[in-house]
Amino acid sequence: MTPLDRLKLTRRQFLAVSGVSAAALAACSGDDDPQTSASPQPTTGEPTSAARTAATSQATTLARTPACTDDDDVTIEQTEGPFFTPDSPERTSLREAGVTGMPLVVSGVVLSTACQPVAGALLDFWQADDAGEYDNIGFKLRGHQFADSDGRYTLETILPALYPGRTRHIHVKVQAPDQPVLTTQLYFPGEPANASDGIFDEALVMDVQNAANGQSAAFDFVLEVG
Q1: Tens of pLDDT along 204-221?
Q2: Which of 148, 150, 140, 147 has its CA nearest to residue 174?
Q3: Together in a domain, 50 and 158
Q4: Is residue 175 within 8 Å of 6, Cβ to Cβ?
Q5: Which of 108, 152, 194, 225 has its CA 20 to 30 A from that of 207?
Q6: Nearest CA-CA partner of 99 in 138, 72, 68
């Protein structure tokens, strides 16, 4: 059975569920406060050169460490909706001829509840275009990819427009190799329609920032891997 065949499992079988560096994995070793392991700093006088180097190194490590601890909550499941199409093309960019709208890059990492990267995880994305419409004939704004050896993924797409009755969102199925499929949705912060959307969940809001050309968003998936 191929990974895409497994996307056709029933919803009853779906589980409710950026790069990961060595420093990120070290943060998962059980020390909830990375600062407690830092080298002691002098209490008087100027810090030594070694102390300054250690402090700088620690700050750099903390800045790039994802928010991940052992036994992180599994990313929650949400409805597939009526517009999923199986067998989407494998690609990391959904931008192509005929696709217009604000550029958006979504990236993150797929992790297990033990805070380990899930290499080769399948991610299948689909979304509305900049007019709030889905392509139900072809594969516009649809595509799947596989996380790299560190569990990282990057998707180049556009900002989806509002679909009638829904807030702004992106659909995704995520599957660790030989594991059940997680079906969920990703949301945007500060959307007025979030409050009135009956499906919206704050736990699925991406970290969205303005970029030089459009917007960038980050979201880490946590899967229960058996």
Answers
A1: 999 999 999 999 999 999
A2: 147
A3: no
A4: yes
A5: 225
A6: 138
3-class DSSP state of 41? coil
Helix, strand, or coil (residue 198): coil
Residue among 87, 93, 75 nearest 3 (CA): 87
Q: Is 38 exposed, middle or buried (0-12, 13-18, 19+ CB in 10 A)?
A: middle
Task: Give the pLDDT score at 226.
Answer: 81
pLDDT in tens, 45-80: 444 444 444 444 443 333 334 556 555 689 999 999
Per the listing, tokens 């050896």 go with 149
Q: How far is CA 82 from the centre of its chain?
A: 22
Q: Tokens representing 146?
A: 């596989």
Query: Are both 32 and 138 inside the same structural domain?
Result: no
Residue listed under structure tokens 């070793």: 29
How do residues 109-128 score in pLDDT, each as one tens digit?
999 999 999 999 999 999 99
Q: Are residues 15 and 26 in the same domain?
A: no
- d(C-alpha 8, C-alpha 31), whole Å: 40
Of 64, 94, 117, the one marking the end of a domain is 64
* 45 shares its domain with 134: no
Asked whether residue 34 falls in the same domain as residue 75, the answer is no
Q: What are the Cα distances from residue 29, in Å, to 25, 51, 116, 219?
A: 7, 24, 10, 22
For the chain, where are the alpha helices, taking DSSP H only?
3-6, 22-26, 49-64
